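Would you be willing to look carefully at the protein I have copied below?

:::
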Amino acid sequence: MAARRGLRIVAWVLAALVAIAVVAWLVFRVPDISVATLRAKYASPASQFVEVMPDLTVHLRDEGKRNGVPLVLLHGSNASLHTWEPWVARLGDRYRIISFDFPAHGLTGPATDGQYTQAAYAKVLAAVVANRGLSRFVVAGNSMGGGVAARYAADHPDRIAGLILVDASGAPYSAGEGGTPLALRIARAPVIRDIASSITPRSVIAASFAGAVSNKAVMTPAMIDRYWELLRYPGNRAATLDRFAQGYSSVSPADLARIDAPVLILWGREDRFIPVASAAYFARNLRHSRTIIYDGVGHLPMEEAPDRSAADVAVFIASLGPDRQTPPGNAPSPAPSARPAQ
């Protein structure tokens, strides 16, 4: 009798918890935003929607000086190509600048194959540069994009004229005493991840961004809106959780040893996402590297210190020499195979 009463109490408690979860989902759920609405707001005259692989159309911009040194820019986790606009504004008169949104980000949206690993993103990079007709180029990556840039450079050293790592991922990571990171635990918990893919209040995005930057002046309402709204591109939130669940990939010393190109390592001293100590890992393992640390800057030097960081990039590219500055065989970009907003 007591046992049956105990089971009934447990059942009632579980039912109450489910009801609370359902009510919370109904009250706090944040809907997706239509593709057409997001393209109208966040695409620019330079934007193209190009099928670079079967069933993968990416949002990219190919702008700047058409016969300049090609500079390919790779954004970080949960960001978009918009993070590079300060560099484009300062460097576009000298270089041909190509930026794009990785799958599960920005206006590209989720990948049909559901693959979001570092290796999968390096294949997307390879497809983009092939589409743009590049045989050799300078590649820069921030955070997640830095890890992808290093991975690609290790696998295709002959294609890289120069490598720029900006607060890059890829150094060996340990979860430490805290165990598995919270984002990974959520991504691997079926019921919780379904709720997390729908309940994403703007305040959470603002708090995350505040933790990323040291120069708070860059935290404008429009910037927070952009991060929050692009996350709500249909399928991006679920794809982000898939990406977290697929885990973190480091770039080993053996991988880095295959990179023969000059490397510029840029880091914000106040980075709380990827600590400045990680810069030393890359410096130790890259033969031809130079490191610049920015005081008073966090995870996003290209946005927090655009003048200083862009100037350092210009000096770096100028130092590459004529043979690397004018790599042979780079073709003009093909006519865009753009798709209209739907």
Remarks:
- Residues 14-27, 175-193, 333-342 have pLDDT under 50 and may be disordered.
- The first strand starts at residue 47 and ends at 53.
